[in-house]
Amino acid sequence: MATITVFTIANTYGDYIRSGWRNILDCILRLHKLSDASTLMPCALVEKTVFGFLRICQRLLPYKDNLADELLRSLHFVLKLNDRVAHTYCEHITQEVTGLVKANATHIRSQMEWHTIINLLSITARHPDASETGFDTLIFIMSQGVHLSPANYILCVDASRQFAEFRHGLAERSLHALDLMAGSISCLSPWSHETKGEEAAEKVSRDIGEM
What we know:
Layout: H1 2-13, H2 21-38, H3 44-60, H4 68-74, H5 76-79, H6 83-104, H7 111-123, H8 131-142, H9 153-165, H10 171-184, H11 188-194, H12 199-210
Helix pairs in contact: 1-2, 1-3, 2-3, 3-6, 4-7, 6-8, 7-8, 7-9, 8-9, 9-10
């Protein structure tokens, strides 16, 4: 009942809530901890908490820039779901993440914000029912470098590698993943000129060297 109440308030009065959003986020995360502590099985409370939060993120990101980092960092709790719960909801979670990314890619800016998103997509490489949607979202981010940036480049390339290496995936998908990696290289030269000497560019160079 408490979960339904929180999400009803958030979705009904979201446009009028300003300083109170952090309290709502804290309440949602507390509900998740309660549900996680009470069961290791998929249940209505876990489902409402996870998907309700994903939908709130999708709704708020376009016009709550001051909360973007906090919202997306808070999504990290999805990565900590019990294995059985995560497997059960993986396909549905991936669909929600896809909607979030396609509607709000331009509002996801920092490496920390991208980290959780790309990790959620990477996990789908090992899930037969969710991998197609997860890979399509990665294509959306990486194709022609439209949504690639120094903040997410290494994360995306590593996710592509995971899809390419996944032994149970389609050969066509693996080849497409390799093409995405190869095509992304064209982004590096413009970045090196635009951000030469800046910390972000230097970090990308170091990370590429390590890979």
